[in-house]
TrEMBL record:
Its EC number is 3.5.1.10. SUPFAM superfamilies: ACT-like (SSF55021), Formyltransferase (SSF53328). It comes from Undibacterium seohonense. The active site is at 232. This is Formyltetrahydrofolate deformylase. Pathway: Purine metabolism; IMP biosynthesis via de novo pathway; formate from 10-formyl-5,6,7,8-tetrahydrofolate: step 1/1. GO terms for molecular function: formyltetrahydrofolate deformylase activity. Catalyzes the hydrolysis of 10-formyltetrahydrofolate (formyl-FH4) to formate and tetrahydrofolate (FH4). NCBIfam families: PRK06027.1 (NF004684), PurU (TIGR00655).
């Protein structure tokens, strides 16, 4: 199997970037499999994702990276070069609502999600048997309602120990219903995805489907976003909606919404794993 890579980059937008990157790949025996780019007229930044294979066994990984670093420096690029065959280590976090957890585990077991799920963390014990059925370690790290700041810090420290011990490249909050501290968010910056059960920025916080019902909305949705210290304000990765009507009660809205949440979260995880997400200030560029 030939080595394959995914190159992602951003830099000030100007003429010649695509020519420079493609020229470098051609002169280093690389064949482009697919490529996408976007120039943002507002931020004046250029974004690019290139999936390519390396066809010369005489060129090793270190040489490729060292050589491209010179090109990147000349264009002031922020860049990453990923092994396309690598399956990232993932830790899932959940509380007492398990539809997103179930969906991710099924996709993982079916080979639809190219990751290695190393652990499941929960502040409840509801899903320890589910974790065992997939032969995935389950870590029960409880946090009592109204816990003190000290107790929360201790619990989060234990969470981070599990994440770090498993060298997690991605942490997925699959309906983990605890607000993470600013310190925790900073520790997971850029590698934690949350699913919020509403079409942000509407209906933040608790019970968004009940909020939506009270407002008489005709659409409900779900939002997958990066976790930041600002609650439900992280850069949005993926969203979707379903049409509803006046005859549906909050429980029906919730049931419909859970299906949307599963799909949106799975898409976001796939985008992350395939290195399709690039940050653009407080927004994202997602190459689909």
């Amino acid at each position: 199997m030939r080595p394959e890579y995914i190159l992602t980059l951003s830099c000030p937008d100007q003429r010649g970037i695509v020519h420079s990157v493609s020229g470098f790949l051609a002169t280093h025996a690389c064949n482009i499999i697919d490529s996408a780019q976007f120039g943002d007229a507002h931020s004046k930044l250029f974004f690019m994702r290139v999936h390519f294979s390396l066809e010369d066994s005489a060129i090793d990984d270190a040489t490729l990276r060292h050589s491209f670093a010179e090109v990147a420096q000349s264009w002031q690029m922020v860049w990453q070069l990923h092994d396309a065959h690598h399956k990232p280590s993932v830790v899932l976090m959940v509380s007492k609502i398990g539809h997103c957890l179930n969906d991710l585990l099924f996709r993982y077991k079916s080979g639809l999600l190219p990751v290695e799920i190393k652990a499941i963390i929960s502040n409840h014990t509801d899903f320890y048997q589910l974790a065992a059925s997939y032969n995935i370690p389950f870590h029960h790290l409880p946090l009592a309602a109204g816990a003190s700041t000290e107790a929360k810090q201790l619990q989060e420290q234990k969470v981070l120990e599990v994440i770090n011990a498993n060298q997690a490249e991605l942490v997925v909050l699959a309906r983990y219903m605890q607000i993470l501290s600013t310190t925790m968010c900073q520790a997971l910056n850029g590698r934690a995805i949350n699913i919020h059960h509403s079409f942000l920025p509407s209906f933040k916080g608790a019970k968004p489907y009940y909020q939506a019902h009270d407002r008489g909305v005709k659409l409900i949705g779900a939002t997958a976003h990066f976790v930041t210290g600002d609650l439900d304000e992280g850069p949005i990765i993926e969203q979707d909606v379903e049409r509803v009507d006046h005859a549906m009660d909050p429980e029906k809205l919730t049931a419909i919404g859970r299906d949307v949440e599963c799909v949106v979260l799975a898409r976001a995880v796939n985008y992350f794993v395939e290195h399709r997400i690039l940050l653009n200030g407080h927004k994202t560029v997602v190459f689909k």
